[in-house]
Amino acid sequence: MILDALILSLPVRHSTLRVRVWRTLKETGCAVLRDGVYVLPTGLPAAKVLTRLASEINAAGGSAMVVELKPKSPEELKRVRALFDRSADYRALLQNLSAPATSRVLERLRRSFARLSATDFFPGAARRLAADALSALERRVEDARGEPRVSPRHLRPLERKTYQNRVWATRKNLWVDRMASAWLIRRFIDPNARFVWIDAPRDRPKKAVGFDFDGAQFTHVDGRVTFEVLLASFGLEADAALTNIGRAVHFLDVGGTPVPDAKGLETMLRGAKERIKNDDTLLAEASRILENLYSAYSAKLPRGN
Predict the structure, then answer these.
(1) Closest CA to 286 of 144, 182, 139
(2) How do beta strands 37-41 and 3-9 pair?
């Protein structure tokens, strides 16, 4: 690898030039080799900026020149590449990707990712992780129309025996949280549950138990998505396999810390959703996927859990 290096000494009293040079070097992704020496990989369009800056600095009474440098050993090359490591910047971006899924937030984060990617000359796992999280946010914005707001209710333990043989209602056109919640209800809470899919909260049958819509008995509370609220309400959080599924559902529904298995789960559920348009049939297919995931998680747990 060959580097273009800007070696500079700025005039002491030219603060405007100092600010402009510092800002330009930062925007082009230059690394600091040592005090007064800024480097970029040779051949990048941004490397031409170094020559322009050198001319400006010399014209203003400073001293600057652009030279080529080449690492002399594999260890030195490794140290130079480390100067361009953007992992910390991607981690900061990932924290912002946990923001509420709105079009305005998404557009701002797209711009941030584009700027960061433009100066990531040696992209690796950190960039892929951020790109996956951004894609997940894009899908959440697409799917968020009609998503419930956080309920002011407080969680409290409930008896499963009082929720047997019930009718459960949620919004039609199922997606991750509603699919997983319906599977959880029938699998662990009310084996004889019957489901109705409604257009709007006002369409909920009078005696039906609502979930995952504004005003529903079970919906987003205290940073938990509906699936996690059901786990907490019915004492199911001790099941580590269910809590693992809950983390994936949380990430796919509202973002936050990326979960390794979430992308695979999303791919399978989205494939089922593209193929199946009837919500009853879609739930049956999603339930098979979630049951397999639950079995896989359970098999990994130490005996006794």
Answers:
(1) 182
(2) antiparallel
Q: Which amino acid is at 213?
A: F
* pLDDT above 80: residue 282: yes
Q: Is the Cβ–Cβ distance between 220 and 151 less than 8 Å?
A: yes
pTM: 0.57
Residue 133 near residue 94 (C-beta atoms within 8 A): yes
Q: Which two tokens mark 214?
A: 């504004």
Domains of the chain with CATH codes:
3-83 (3.30.70), 87-143 (no CATH), 160-300 (no CATH)
CA torsion angle 229 233 237 239 (round to 10): -110
Yes or no: say if 9 and 36 are a contact pair by the CB < 8 Å rule: yes
**Rounded to an integer, what distance in angstroms lies between the CA atom of residue 89 and that of residue 130?**
10
Q: Quick one: 242 exposed, middle or buried, by C-beta within 10 A (0-12, 13-18, 19+)?
A: buried
Q: What is the pLDDT of residues 56-113, one digit of tens each?
A: 999 999 999 999 999 889 998 999 899 999 999 999 998 887 766 667 788 888 999 9
Cβ 136 vs Cβ 267: under 8 Å:
no
**Residue 155: both structure tokens together:** 């969680």
* Cβ atoms of residues 246 and 228 within 8 Å: yes
Alpha carbon 37 to its chain centroid, in Å, reads 36
Counting every residue, how long is the chain? 305
254: phi then psi, degrees, rounded to nearest 5: -130, 0
